[in-house]
Amino acid sequence: MTTLAVGVVGAGWMATDYHVPAFTSHPRTRVVAFAERDADRRSTVEEELSVPGYDDISSMLAAHDLDIVSICTPPSTHEAIFIAAVEAGCHVLCEKPLALSAESASRMADAAAAADIVTQIGYLHRYYRNYQRAMTILSNDLLGDLVEITVAHHSAPPSQGWYYNPTLSGGGVARDLFPHSLDVLFELFDESPDVTDASVRYLRDRNVEDAARASMTFGDVPVELSATWTQTEGVSRVLVVGTEGWLELDSKTLQGDVHGRPFEFQQGSLPLVDLGIANLFPASDEDAHTERIHDFADHAVAGDPDTSAPVGRGVAVAEVIDAVYERSGVDPRGER
Amino acid sequence: MRVLVTGATGFIGLNLLAALEETDHEPVAMVRPSSTTTRLPDGVDTVEADLSDTDSLTTALADVEGVVHLAAAVYDTASMATVNTSGTERLVEAATRGDIDRFVFLSTIGAHPEVPADAESTYQQSKVASEELLFGREHPFEVAAIYPTYIFGPRDYRLTRYEHVRPIATNRVLVPPLYTDAKYNIVHVDDVVGTVGRCLDGEATGRQLVTGPNLTNGQVLKAIARHTPGKCRVVTVPYGAIRWGVKPAMDLLHRVGISPVPGEGFLERGDFGTVRPALTEQAPVDQRPWEAALSETVEWYEAVGLL
C-alpha cells in the first residue's frame, strides 16, 4: 500500500498540534518535510518531529517528491505557496482564510483548475458532530420552511501578531471567523448570499476590526452573522428558525423543537439517561480537527476532488467577506 | 384516475403520494398558501385551495375524477369543528356539483359505528359528525371511509410518534415513571395508504377498518427498544406498582421541589386505538406487521437526524 508524502508549510501551533499528528495517524499519509521561515522555530520543530525543515516551500518542493502540501501560514502567504504546490502537482489542504481577497482566491482556484489535484480549505465547524446532525435535520426539511438564521461567533483575541496586521491578515475578525459559518451556510443553501448590511467596530483600538456584523439573504432566508474577539473561552452558536420548529447549536449542545416535541444532543449523541428533570450524556471522543484532515487525506488518496470545501468554496467565502467590508465602508487590507 | 388529495403535506398524505407514484393514479396535492411544499415528491401537481373556501374547492375539483380527503385538524381543538366537519361538508358539496367518481375519506377508529367513540375527544366527535354527511345520503359518486387505529410509519414530520421512541433512545433502562400504562392497536401507514389505493381502484367501498392486533405496553415498548439505538432494557411493572409506588414517590419528589409535577399524571392509562377482539387485524390489503410499523418509524427518525 503506497502512502502519500506530506509537506507542511508553516510550523506554528496549527501545524504541530493538528496537521502533523493527523497526517501521521492517517494510514495512507506520512509527513516527510516541513517549511518554516523562522530559524529558531525550524530547528525546534525539526528536533521534535525528526523530519527535515526548509526555509521556504520551493526548497522543500525541490528536495522532496511531495504528494500533499498542507498550508498553515498567515493568509498573506497562501497564494504564492498554494500556486507553487499546485504547479508541483500536489494536493493542497489550506487553512482558512484562503486568501486576502476574492481576487487572490480566484487566482488560486484557476491554478488548481489547471492541475489535476484535490483541494480543501480548512473550515472546521462542519466536522463537529452537532453540525453534521443539524445539517441532516435541516436537509430533511424537519423545520418546515426556514424563516431566519442567526450566527454568533465570539472567540478569544488571537495571540499571534499577524492577525492584527491587515497586510498579513486581510482584515480582522470578519476575515478570521466568518469563514467557518459561511462554509456551513453555503453547504446548507447551495447558493451565494446577498450582503444587505454590514458594519465593523474597533473595540480595543487595534489595526483591524475586532467586532463585525453582517446581514445577508440566502434566497429569501435572512441570515445575521456576528463575530468578535472578546472572550476568554469562545462561543460559536447558531439559531435556526423554521415554520415548524427551531434548533440551536454550538459544538457541544444541539437543542431544538419540532411541533412542540423537544430534542437535545451533546456532541451529536443522545443522552444515556434522560429523566426529564435531569439528563446524562455519554463521554465523547470527538476530534473535529483530525476528522477534517483525515477527510481531506481520504479524498487525496482516492484522487477525489469533491472534498467538503474545495478551493471554489474558498473563493465564494472570500467574495462574501469582501462584500461585508465593502458594505462596512472599510479597506480590510489598508491601515486605519 | 386523477385524484385530488387534501392533507397531502401531512403524515398520511406524504406516504400516499409516495405510494401512488407506483400506480396509475395521478395525484393532485391540494395545498394551502401557507403549506410547506418542499416535502412533496418531485413533479407532483399541486393546486391551492382551502377547505373554508367553497369556490377554491370547486376550482380544485375541476379536472379530477377522485377525491382523497385526508385533511383534518388533529391537534388544534379550536379548528376541529370548522375544518373537520364544515370543511368536509363543503368538500362533499363541491364534489357533488363536480364530476367525481370516487370519494375516499380518512376517518378514525372511534368514528366507526361498531366502535364506541370517546365522548371526550373533540377530534373523534368531529369525525363522527362526518359519518352522516357521507353515509346518511345519496351521492353521485362512490364513498369509502377508512377507520385506522394507531398509525406508525415513516415521514412523521410532525413527530407525533416521537414521544414513544425518544424515552427509549435516551435511557438504558426504561421503567415507570419514564413511561405510563397504555395499550395499543398499531397499524402500518402502508396499510392505510394501501387501503386508499384499493378504494380508488373501486375494489373497496363503504366503511373500511384498518386495524392491527391489540398490544400491551410491554409488547410495544420492547419492540421499539429492539429497533432503537442504545439497547434500552424495558422493565414492565404491574399497574399496582405504579399506583402504590411511583405515584406516592413522585408526589414526595414534587413536595420537596425536585419533580416539577405531582404523581397524578403517572396514573394515566392510555388507550391508543384498541378495539374489541372481533375487530382486530382487519384491512382490505395484505397487512404489514405491526413491528415493521414501529421499526420503520424508528429508522425514519434516525435517517432525518432525530435519533
UniProtKB/TrEMBL annotation, chain B:
This is NAD-dependent epimerase/dehydratase. One of its GO terms (molecular function) is aldehyde dehydrogenase (NAD+) activity. It holds the Pfam family Epimerase. The lineage of its organism: Archaea, Methanobacteriati, Methanobacteriota, Stenosarchaea group, Halobacteria. One of its GO terms (cellular component) is cytoplasm. Gene3D superfamilies: NAD(P)-binding Rossmann-like Domain (3.40.50.720). Signal peptide: none annotated. Residues 3-196 form the NAD-dependent epimerase/dehydratase domain. InterPro entries: Epimerase_deHydtase, NAD(P)-bd_dom_sf, NAD(P)-dependent_oxidoreduct.
